[in-house]
Amino acid sequence: MRAARALAVGAALGSAAGAIFLRRRSRSRDRVALYFDDGSLVTVAKGQPEGERLLAPARELLAAARG
Amino acid sequence: MAPPADALAHLTEISSQIDAAVVLDREGTVVAATVDDERAGRMAGAALELFRRADEQREQELVQLDAALEGGSVFVVRDADRLIAATTRSEPTVGLVFYDLKSCLRSLGEAPAEKPKPKPKRAPAKRRTTTPRSRTTTRKKKDESG
């Protein structure tokens, strides 16, 4: 009985920690979404070949706005 | 056409998510901005560079983009001959921001609403005399006329 309870608590804590980890990971993932006139959408994320080429001016834009 | 400064003022008034915005032409010249000239120039340069690089990604024409970054998001929307770039806090309501930016660009291209002509003022109506006609009308009596 005690072992089952410990297992349940452990599973709950583990899933909560996993959710927090995934949320933080997704938050820190920089990405650019491009919308074209034919209705198509292309997403370029950090780490992809074109990622840094697009993310650099985007960061510059954000920094310029913040002064 | 709404003046660009007015359109941006309206934009920041209706959208609490937008921190800063700048309207620029296709050459990168600032048309209007919610920030000072120096920051607006830097924003316009970065926005144009970002849009040009992104437009090279495909043969189709790019109409808008958003970038989710650590610490905030940036948006760029293209109209016929203008671009609007804006920054927001982290995790904004993307669809709503795009809608507001497009509305702002559209308002810049719209013809101004004609003011209705003022109605010509009427001359004040003459007051009718309220005094009742005297009932004691003087009728000529037949016998008097002869």
Task: List the SSEs and their pairings.
The complex is a heterodimer of chains A (67) and B (146).
Chain A: H1 2-27, E1 31-36, E2 41-45, H2 51-66
Chain B: H1 4-14, E1 18-25, E2 30-33, H2 37-55, E3 62-69, E4 72-78, E5 82-88, H3 94-109, H4 142-145
Antiparallel strand pairs in B: 1-2, 1-5, 3-4, 4-5
Can you walk me through this structure?
The complex is a heterodimer of chains A (67) and B (146). With 67 residues, chain A is of the alpha+beta class. Helices cover 63% and strands 16% of the residues of chain A. A two-stranded antiparallel sheet of chain A has the order 1-2. The longest helix of chain A is centred in the N-terminal third of the chain and has 26 residues, at 2-27. The radius of gyration of chain A is 20 Å and the shape is elongated. The model of chain A has no long low-confidence stretch (mean pLDDT 87). The relative contact order of chain B is 0.17. Chain B contains four helices and five strands; from the N terminus they run H-E-E-H-E-E-E-H-H. The termini of chain B are far apart. Helices cover 34% and strands 23% of the residues of chain B. The model of chain B has no long low-confidence stretch (mean pLDDT 83). With 146 residues, chain B is of the alpha+beta class. Chain B is globular and about 80 Å long. At the A-B interface, strand 1 and helix 2 of A face helix 2, strand 3 and strand 4 of B. Strand 1 of chain A pairs antiparallel with strand 3 (62-69) of chain B, so a sheet runs across the interface.
In short:
The complex is a heterodimer of chains A (67) and B (146). Chain A has 67 residues and is an alpha+beta fold.
